[in-house]
Amino acid sequence: MKSILLFVSLSLLTLSTTFAQSAEEQSLIQLSMDKWQWMSDKDVDKLDKLFDAKAKFVHMSGTWKKDEELDIIKTGRIWYKKATVKDTAVEISGNTAIVWNRINLDSIVRDNVAINEFTVTEVYQKQGKDWKMLALTFSSVRDTHQIKH
Domain spanning 22-140 has what CATH number? Predict the structure, then answer.
């Protein structure tokens, strides 16, 4: 009986957290999930539309701008095979949004298999009706790291 009550309580807590997110926050979470899929699919046309012209990308091996990131994805120098998102948090302030994803990333980096845990920070700016990504930063984390909501 206690396990049923615990399950129901946790389910209600999860539902209340989901409903507490605004439509805009849910839209950004979906955009972030779509971005991971586009990166996996090497769909540089969709990514080109998402990334702001002045966007910056911070990886474990360096920092570069939009054109280099798109070329890296297109040529497969980094293939973001699968990002398994474990947790996501969003904060919106005016026309700026920050999305944090805690992920396990399976990738191929210069022909080497790489499996890493990261917290990824994505910064977006509302431009007209669309959100554009201004920055994406990978931070290496321990498996005990949590995103505070």
Answer: 3.10.450.50
